[in-house]
Amino acid sequence: MIPVNQLSDPAVRAFVTAVNAGDRQAFGAALAPGATMSDDGSDRDVSDWADREIFSSNGHMDVESESDGGRALVADYRNDTWGAMRTAWRFSVEDGRVSRFETGQA
Hints:
This protein is an alpha+beta fold.
């Protein structure tokens, strides 16, 4: 596992730190205005998805590996709804914040 504080991309590091802390304010700050996302190939509303998959279900990421300069991750993701699963994450970053993220089972 890669410690979160050693993730290469600062915007991705802020995103993962916020997820793991369950910190809605930090999560919002890690996202660019108008940020978008998809889960298993389907676009979702970021706020609704984050509330359901992260904040109300204790979401947590343990990063196994990173590539593409730290903007692509493979992580063990777990929450109280789905349990644990191996997931892939890809991030687009603009002006130091995540403008889009895509996740799904790896």
